[in-house]
Amino acid sequence: MKKLAWLLLAICSLPAVAAGKQIAIVIDDIGNHQRDLETLNLPGKISFSILPHTPYSQIFARLASQSDKELLLHIPMQALDNSKALGPGALTSDMSKEQLQHTLGNALATLPQVKGVNNHMGSALTQESQPMKWTMEVLKKRNLYFLDSRTTGLSQAQNVANLYGVENVGRHVFLDNIVNEQQLQFRLNELKYKAERYNFAIAIAHPYPETIEFLQRKLPELEQQGFELVPLSQLVERKYIQLAQAEHKGVSAR
């Protein structure tokens, strides 16, 4: 009830910019390499998702917080392809509730700066409702949002998040599934098209040198083109304010 009351109060003070074309870009897979630190030089309100228990996770989180960059936990989840290495802190389908929640809790404890969580891989685990329920229980208690990376079209993550009252959004575009100038530009154009159509859009990218060099050149152009680059939490907040507005209008119409 307190959350709903806050959202209703926020309706009256929602800034006009929220009606504009807003874009959030999340750089995934942060923490394994020293070069990941260079991504902090990207201009604008980029968000970063950090892999737990990796060599540079702690220093990246500290430097990012000093630069007022938004952080997520990039929690590894079981993929359909079992040959893929998940890395430390992974959540798997053979875990009990206690094991999964303990593993996730440990990962979150190492990165207290994060505002949300998204899945690394997870094409298998996000299809399973029970592990997603256990995951969302943890996020709800910690008041964290969930970004579904949508590594499968059969993901149950957002459905379960809604059931547990966890604020959530889904990825619209992967910017760098193919890392060359032509494909990067194609995906960026797709992102801008979605932002123009829906007034917001969410992209995931990775700390590949080609991607970072591309974004260094292209991000400054977004504002000139009428887009606003925002932290992901701003789009999460926007979604739930709009839901509250719709609910409020429905109540008023009765």
Q: What does this protein structure show overall?
A:
Helix 1 crosses helix 8 and helix 3 packs across helix 4. It is globular, with a radius of gyration of 18 Å. Strands 1, 2, 3, 4, 5, 6, 7, 8 and 9 form a 9-stranded parallel β-sheet that branches. About 3% of the residues have low confidence. The protein is built from 8 helices and 9 strands. 45% of the residues lie in helices and 18% in strands. It is α/β, with parallel strands linked by helices. The longest helix has 22 residues. The two termini are 20 Å apart. Keywords: Signal. InterPro entries: Divergent_DAC, Glyco_hydro/deAcase_b/a-brl. This is Divergent polysaccharide deacetylase family protein.
Q: What is the succession of H and E elements?
A: HEEHEHEHEHEEHEHEH
How big is the Rg?
18 Å
Mean pLDDT: 92
Treating each run of at least 4 consecutive H or I residues as one helix, how many helices?
A: 8
Please give the alpha-carbon distance between the first and last residues. 20 Å
Concise structural overview:
The protein has 254 residues and is α/β, with parallel strands linked by helices. It has helices spanning 2-13, 57-66, 97-110, 129-142, 157-164, 181-198, 209-224, 232-253; strands at 21-30, 47-50, 70-77, 116-121, 145-148, 168-170, 173-174, 200-205, 227-229. It comes from Pseudoalteromonas prydzensis.
